[in-house]
Amino acid sequence: MQQPPSDAAPMAARVQNLTKTFGAGESRVHALDDVTIGLRRGEFTAIMGPSGSGKSTLMHVMAGLDAATSGRVFVGDTEITGLSDLELTVLRRSRVGFVFQSFNLVPTLDVLGNITLPFELAGRSPSPEARRRIDALVESMGLGDRLRHRPHELSGGQQQRVAIARALATRPDLIFADEPTGNLDSRTGREVLALLGAASREHGQSIAMVTHDPVAASHADRVIFLGDGRVVADTPRQSAEAISAYMLSSEVGA
Ligand SMILES: Nc1ncnc2c1ncn2[C@@H]1O[C@H](COP(=O)(O)OP(=O)(O)O)[C@@H](O)[C@H]1O
Ligand SMILES: [Mg+2]
């Protein structure tokens, strides 16, 4: 597959010679093996690869949620390897949104409380503009009649939509979304992809999205494939058909 343009676009986040291992001795796992890659500012990047290839680990390390074993990690121009937990927390709160595979909703808060949690944590209440944005997110995610429900009263797909609304609510510079369309029906899935696309195109936000779905990945400006903890392909926007064909031919598919 084609290589991306080699222009030195500013990076929203990047890792240099990143290695991440889990465990020790016999049970040691190399989740990431000498990965050097950057997410270009304002771009929507899809990350694909088989289960266990290191996709979630790469996003967690890039977002400062998990420490590198070796190598360097930057968010914008800030090297985060070596920051204290407090410094990392402050950086994440002000700049990064994350949609986890496990949703990570707060069980004791209702839907609205979960969506506005990033504002609470930052000690500010949403501006009128942010309130309008939250209303629009609630509307497009079909959560209007669920605002007072708690996570355990929602389906998996609804919880996922709450997590997406929460990640977009503060309009962060950088959004990591781990299989954000995995539990959604196709209509809501398209809505999520449209929201992520608009976040990058209209608001210059940088998005990294893990997906197994070639149709979802075809919405991205760039597709990165991981295999066994390494980057095995890095391509500009592709059609769903081309992505499927590549996944079949290289057996890097889901
Ligand atoms: N917390 C952890 N402890 C031990 N091994 C882990 C942990 N997280 C991930 N791994 C291992 O690292 C590898 C990559 O995992 P992951 O990044 O979750 O892959 P993916 O998201 O592509 O499915 C896998 O072999 C996985 O079992
Ligand atoms: Mg994963």
Give the tags:
single chain; 254 residues; alpha/beta; Rossmann fold; 4-stranded antiparallel sheet; 9 helices; 35% helix; binds adenosine-5'-diphosphate; binds magnesium ion; nucleotide-binding; ABC_transporter-like_ATP-bd
Any idea how many domains?
1
Q: Which topology does CATH recognise? A: Rossmann fold
What would the average pLDDT be, to the nearest integer? 92
The CATH first-level class comes to Alpha Beta
Please state the oligomeric state of the protein chains shown.
single chain
| Overall strand count | 10
**What's the N-to-C terminus distance?**
18 Å
Order of helices and strands: EEEHEEHEHHHHEHEHEEH
Q: What is the makeup of the main sheet?
A: 6 strands, mixed
In the CATH hierarchy, what is the architecture at level 2?
3-Layer(aba) Sandwich
Strand order of the largest sheet: 6-7-8-3-9-10
The distinct bound ligands, ions and cofactors come out as: adenosine-5'-diphosphate, magnesium ion
Counting DSSP H or I runs of 4 or more residues, the number of helices is 9
Tell me, briefly, the overall form.
Answer: globular
Structural class: alpha/beta
Helix content: 25-40%
What is the CATH homologous superfamily assignment? P-loop containing nucleotide triphosphate hydrolases
Which spans of ≥5 residues are poorly predicted at pLDDT below 50?
2-6
CA radius of gyration is 18 Å
Strand coverage percent: 25-35%
Pfam families: ABC_tran
Keywords: ATP-binding, Nucleotide-binding, Transport
InterPro entries: AAA+_ATPase, ABC_transporter-like_ATP-bd, ABC_transporter-like_CS, ABC_transpr_LolD-like, MacB-like_ATP-bd, P-loop_NTPase
Protein name: ABC transporter ATP-binding protein
